[in-house]
User: Fold this.
Amino acid sequence: MPTRNVNLANELDRFVLAKVESGRSENASVVVRAALRMLKREEAECEARLSALRKAIDEGDASGIAGGNPFARVRRELKLTKPTKGDGVSPRSSRRDRSPDIATSTPVGVSVI
Assistant:
């Protein structure tokens, strides 16, 4: 098995020592290997979620622009009575103008992956 030297912050070193002293782990190497397995599993789960999100975005893009007033439909489903600020609907806009051009707008705070 390959050997690595790893520098740990004091807090992590105390954590490793506590696991060994408590008897939960044989030695520091066992603790570090367990932590790396957990990190590997967490990253795989994150990648799976990102992949599912990308697929959902692609499916949404392929489905085209929603007809009618999608914001009103969402408000009805959520049982909201008034439009909220920033929902893309202006009280003075015509019915035709109520759906924003999704292809040219990116919501604030949203990054495209």
Confidence is low (pLDDT under 50) at residues 93-98. Residues 8-63 form one domain. The first helix runs from residue 10 to 21.
